[in-house]
């Protein structure tokens, strides 16, 4: 069996930012590593962290979610003693993974640079500024929870976000945060309610990682309407189940938010601006793997909500049909409705 080549990047990640990720990715490439462990360190007397350990862990998980080669690691948090330096972490990794070939990725000087960027980000939050070195998912995490003295925060986020972290896989968790952020931005641009958009974006996939049987019982228990095709497909049913679950479990009562969740994957003719915004945000959020049309839909999203959503649904429809899968008739109807809009504009 070949040796696993591991890079080790330690930090308090308070918060994690794009330079941490860039350094890890660059090491993967230039040192031909298999993985980089992003090892979260405990707060120490020499370096106090502003954010709680649990928050720094969830942000690190979200930041790594787009790249399977980046592995968030709790090895320093879960050790029987608290390693205080990268060299101690290296010894710990060597003893717990004897078949790996681990290497530390940085000098003290680059560690100081990364920490300076984190400090700059912390200061930017207090002024309500969005720092360019923050990934959208991490930004949303901090701003929704009001971390680092951010002046605005999303009501109930302190209950919802840990719940989503438990219910979703890391990729879906990061996606949900990014869709919340993207939905809010689109809502501001196109005159929808930004707070409702953020709520719906955050919760739109809250049932996505449940087994199909669980989705079915959530929908049937709530007496929600779902046709047989929907009931037999998790890809379709998670939106209806998500709306039922958001009402029951997350306490959402606003019909606009619930409808935006329920129809986020098909749309519906005559859909509200809020529903359009969430549907489009789901398609273009920055964590998405590149695919044909994505750049074009993102470009259109800057100028026309109708046209961008139409192109995204046409792309979805083509993709689904090319795979020989079932296209829900509501998606077809929504495309027709959006085409009729663009003909009259
Ligand atoms: Fe979804
Ligand atoms: Fe989604």
Bound compounds? fe (ii) ion
Low-pLDDT sequence parts: none
Radius of gyration: 22 Å
The helix content is 55-70%
Order of helices and strands: EHEHEHHEHHHHHHHHHHHHH
Mean pLDDT across every amino acid position:
94
Tally of DSSP helical segments: 17
Residue fraction in strands = 5-15%
Classified by CATH, the class of the largest domain is Mainly Alpha
Major β-sheet annotation: 4 strands, parallel
Just name the CATH architecture of the largest domain: Orthogonal Bundle
Give the key terms.
Rossmann fold, 2 domains, alpha/beta, Hypothetical protein af1432, 17 helices, 7% strand, four-stranded parallel β-sheet, binds fe (ii) ion, 345 residues
Can you lay out the helices and strands and say which pair or pack?
Blueprint: E1 4-11, H1 18-30, E2 35-40, H2 53-64, E3 70-73, H3 75-78, H4 86-96, E4 100-104, H5 108-126, H6 136-145, H7 157-167, H8 170-190, H9 194-203, H10 212-221, H11 228-231, H12 234-249, H13 255-262, H14 273-284, H15 294-300, H16 305-322, H17 329-344
Parallel strand pairs: 1-2, 1-4, 2-3
Helix pairs in contact: 2-6, 2-8, 6-8, 8-9, 8-14, 9-13, 9-14, 10-12, 12-13, 13-14, 14-16, 15-16, 16-17
The site of one fe (ii) ion has 5 residues, from helix 8.
Task: Please tell me about this protein's structure.
- There is one protein chain.
- The mean pLDDT is 94.
- β1, α1 (18-30) and β2 (35-40) form a beta-alpha-beta unit.
- Strands 3-2-1-4 form a 4-stranded parallel sheet, sandwiched between helices.
- It has 2 domains: 4-126, HUPs (Rossmann fold); 154-344, Hypothetical protein af1432, CATH 1.10.3210.10.
- The chain contains 17 helices and 4 strands.
- By secondary structure, it is an alpha/beta fold.
- α6 crosses α8 and α15 packs antiparallel against α16 (305-322).
- The termini are far apart.
- The protein binds fe (ii) ion (2 copies).
């Amino acid at each position: 069996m070949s040796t696993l080549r591991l890079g080790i990047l330690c930090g308090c990640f308070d918060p994690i930012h794009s330079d941490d990720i860039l350094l890890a990715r660059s090491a993967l490439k230039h040192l031909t590593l298999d993985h980089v462990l992003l090892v979260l360190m405990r707060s120490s007397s020499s370096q106090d962290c502003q954010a709680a350990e649990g928050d720094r862990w969830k942000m690190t998980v979200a930041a790594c979610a787009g790249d399977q080669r980046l592995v968030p690691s709790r090895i320093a948090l879960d050790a029987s003693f608290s390693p205080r330096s990268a060299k101690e972490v290296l010894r710990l990794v060597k003893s717990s993974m004897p078949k790996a070939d681990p290497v530390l990725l940085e000098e003290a000087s680059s560690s100081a640079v990364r920490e300076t960027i984190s400090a700059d980000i912390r200061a930017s939050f207090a002024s309500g500024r969005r720092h360019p070195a923050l990934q959208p998912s991490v930004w949303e995490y901090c701003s929704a929870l009001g971390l680092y003295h951010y002046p605005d925060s999303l009501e109930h986020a302190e209950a919802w976000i840990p719940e989503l972290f438990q219910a979703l896989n890391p990729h879906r968790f990061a996606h949900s945060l990014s869709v919340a952020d993207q939905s809010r931005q689109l809502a501001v641009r196109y005159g929808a309610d930004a707070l409702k958009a953020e709520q719906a974006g955050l919760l739109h996939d809250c049932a996505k990682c449940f087994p199909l049987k669980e989705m079915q019982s959530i929908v049937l228990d709530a007496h929600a309407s779902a046709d047989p095709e929907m009931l037999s497909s998790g890809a379709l049913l998670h939106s209806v189940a998500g709306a039922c679950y958001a009402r029951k479990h997350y306490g959402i009562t606003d019909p606009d938010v619930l409808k935006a969740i329920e129809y986020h994957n098909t749309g519906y003719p005559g859909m509200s601006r809020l529903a359009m915004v969430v549907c489009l945000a789901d398609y273009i959020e920055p964590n998405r793997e590149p695919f044909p049309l994505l750049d074009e839909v993102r470009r259109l999203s800057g100028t026309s909500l109708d046209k961008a959503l139409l192109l995204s649904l046409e792309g979805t429809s083509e993709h689904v049909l090319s795979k020989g899968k079932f296209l829900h008739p509501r998606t077809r109807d929504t495309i027709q409705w959006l085409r009729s809009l663009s003909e009259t504009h």
